[in-house]
């Protein structure tokens, strides 16, 4: 009960502001005579969210799969590359400049190439999300693996511990908070990537729904799609935050 | 003196810096007996910590030879316990798991050593703190846990690099007493005790703890004086106020600074 009341004390300004803005929006549209295709009222957005002919579930499903796929791909590849970089200076020298180059490319500009190479489908959009989101994971993994006190490593050397053991018992747990902190960025990037992919080429998904509303002028549906996208994004972000608290409870305040 | 545990013969260390070669240690020759408590005091940068790491085999000496238990040290040697200035406990592991870390790193059966780890924690006044995370303990308690970790595999040699340097003065004096108790100054005969090589900046701390104090000169570090501390054991708090204690402290101070006219004088 006290927890609830402290939560409500913390969040009531947010909720109040949100409600106020919604009310202003609704009033502006209904009293100001703004046309629906320019700015639909909150009520019609609400209706579009549930009672549209769009068939939300399949689009929601497609985009969710793309986002989760992009996130997992970025996480796995990012951690693997980060470990490889921290494992061997040779690999680091070979890989890092190349990765920095890839990261400086505007990923959105690559999306049309993905269409040429892979055609329509879920996978190229997943790949786009992963491409946008993997870099922070690589960097944070490599940094987290190397931020170990020299004395700690001496302790490992005194006992003649093999390199893999130092990684397994000291370096990787040490990197965990860094990795989890990068994954919060990746969660957001995965959403952007999936939607960008759908904008360029798709026949399904929430990004695709938005592009179709451009021709149909059904702006309320575009707004509704935005809301669905943000719900998926928020859920993924929340899951990562939760994961961080479960896996690395000692690391409060690392990010 | 009893059997020699550490034999240092003309040990020197030169490393390459951006400005050219730097001679950190030169002509260190000394023999440290088994069960002896020896402190290294010296000005900052005199290579005390480097010498400690050379003994551990963590850094190679560039000249001379080091032998521990009669064997030349050419690589890290496992039969030592190390305590550093910071406790460097793994923050995701409980205190007990931290104490057991050497067993895991050395590929020994950590489970079998659990009772010993718990016993060590008990002895260090940390009974019941085993399941806690390091951040739940004070700095002094963390350093005690680090000492337990160093003792886990019962090494004959304990290398301590300013272990109490980061603690406040009162905790520091407490820890010195604790260390002597755990070392077994009351219960063990000298040959049954661990050999301790203890680096410190504090002259009174060195006098209070040691059987011998090696005073090192500024870079390149050499042994400027080798003083026997013939104070009765077990050492007590009252000892710090005694005349003999004060005399030895002054003597080391003079050896360290090269002044002959005492603390108040100016060169």
The chain-level structural class of chain B is alpha/beta
Shape by Cα distribution of chain B: globular
- What is the CATH fold-level name of chain A? MetI-like fold
CATH H-level superfamily title of chain A: MetI-like
> What is the residue-mean pLDDT of chain A, rounded to a whole number?
89
- Mean pLDDT of chain B equals 88
Walk me through this protein's architecture.
The complex is a heterodimer of chains A (255) and B (267). The longest helix of chain A is centred in the last third of the chain and has 38 residues, at 163-200. Chain A is built from 10 helices and no strands. Chain A has one domain (54-251): Orthogonal Bundle (MetI-like fold). By secondary structure, chain A is mostly helical. Chain A has helices spanning 2-32, 42-50, 56-87, 89-104, 111-118, 122-146, 150-158, 163-200, 206-216, 219-247. Chain B is α/β, with parallel strands linked by helices and 267 residues long. Chain B has a domain at 87-154. Chain B has 8 helices and 10 strands. The chains are: A mainly alpha (255), B alpha/beta (267). Chains A and B meet through helix 7 and helix 8 of A and helix 3 of B.
What's the topology here?
The complex is a heterodimer of chains A (255) and B (267).
Chain A (H helix, E strand, L loop, with lengths): L1 H31 L9 H9 L5 H32 L1 H16 L6 H8 L3 H25 L3 H9 L4 H38 L5 H11 L2 H29 L8
Helix pairs in contact in A: 2-10, 3-4, 3-6, 3-8, 3-9, 3-10, 5-6, 6-8, 8-9, 8-10, 9-10
Chain B lengths: L3 E14 L2 E14 L3 E5 L6 H9 L6 E6 L2 E2 L7 E4 L11 H5 L1 H5 L4 H14 L15 H13 L5 E5 L7 H15 L11 E6 L2 H7 L2 E5 L6 E6 L14 H15 L10
Parallel strand pairs in B: 3-8, 3-9, 6-7, 7-8
Antiparallel strand pairs in B: 1-2, 1-4, 4-5, 9-10
Helix pairs in contact in B: 7-8
């Amino acid at each position: 009960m006290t927890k609830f009341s402290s939560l409500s004390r913390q969040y009531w300004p947010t909720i109040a502001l949100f409600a106020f803005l919604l009310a202003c929006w609704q009033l502006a549209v209904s009293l100001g005579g703004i046309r629906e295709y320019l700015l639909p009222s909150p009520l019609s957005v609400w209706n579009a969210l549930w009672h549209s002919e769009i068939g939300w579930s399949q689009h929601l499903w497609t985009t969710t799969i793309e986002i989760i796929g992009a996130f997992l791909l970025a996480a796995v590849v990012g951690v693997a590359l980060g470990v490889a970089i921290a494992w061997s200076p040779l690999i680091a020298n070979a890989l890092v400049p190349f990765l920095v180059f890839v990261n400086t490319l505007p990923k959105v500009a690559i999306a049309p190439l993905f269409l040429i190479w892979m055609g329509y489908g879920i996978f190229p959009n997943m790949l786009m999300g992963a491409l946008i989101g993997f870099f922070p994971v690589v960097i944070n993994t490599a940094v987290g693996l190397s931020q170990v006190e020299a004395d700690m490593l001496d302790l490992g050397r005194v006992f003649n511990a093999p390199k893999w053991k130092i990684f397994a018992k000291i370096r990787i747990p040490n990197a965990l908070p860094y990795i989890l902190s990068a994954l919060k960025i990746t969660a957001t990037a995965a959403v952007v990537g999936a939607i960008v992919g759908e904008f360029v080429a798709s026949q399904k998904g929430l990004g695709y729904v938005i592009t179709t509303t451009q021709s149909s002028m059904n702006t309320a549906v575009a707004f509704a799609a935005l809301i669905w996208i943000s719900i998926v994004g928020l859920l993924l972000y929340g899951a990562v935050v939760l994961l961080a608290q479960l896996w690395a409870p000692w690391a409060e305040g690392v990010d | 003196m009893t059997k020699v545990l550490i034999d240092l013969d003309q040990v020197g260390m030169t490393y390459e810096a951006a400005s050219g070669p730097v001679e950190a240690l030169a002509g260190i020759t000394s023999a440290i007996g088994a069960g002896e408590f020896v402190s290294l005091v010296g000005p900052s940068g005199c290579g005390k910590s480097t010498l400690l790491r050379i003994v551990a085999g963590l850094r190679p000496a560039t000249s001379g030879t080091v032998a521990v238990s009669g064997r030349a040290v050419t690589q890290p040697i496992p039969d030592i316990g190390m305590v550093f200035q910071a406790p460097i406990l793994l923050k995701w592991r409980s205190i007990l798991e931290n104490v057991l870390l050497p067993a895991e790193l050395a590929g020994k059966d950590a489970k079998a050593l659990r009772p010993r780890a718990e016993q060590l924690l008990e002895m260090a006044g940390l009974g019941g703190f085993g399941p806690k995370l390091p951040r739940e303990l004070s700095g002094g308690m963390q350093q005690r846990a680090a000492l337990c970790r160093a003792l886990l595999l019962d090494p004959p040699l304990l290398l301590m690099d300013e272990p109490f340097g980061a603690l406040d003065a009162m905790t520091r004096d407490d820890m010195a007493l604790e260390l002597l108790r755990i070392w077994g100054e009351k219960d063990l005969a000298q040959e049954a005790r661990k050999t301790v090589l203890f680096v410190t900046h504090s002259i009174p701390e060195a006098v209070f703890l040691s059987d011998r104090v090696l005073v090192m000169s500024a870079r390149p570090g050499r042994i400027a004086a080798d003083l026997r501390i013939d104070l009765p054991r077990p050492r007590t708090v009252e000892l710090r106020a005694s005349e003999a204690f004060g005399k030895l402290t002054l003597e080391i101070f003079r050896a360290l600074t090269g002044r002959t006219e005492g603390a108040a004088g100016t060169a």
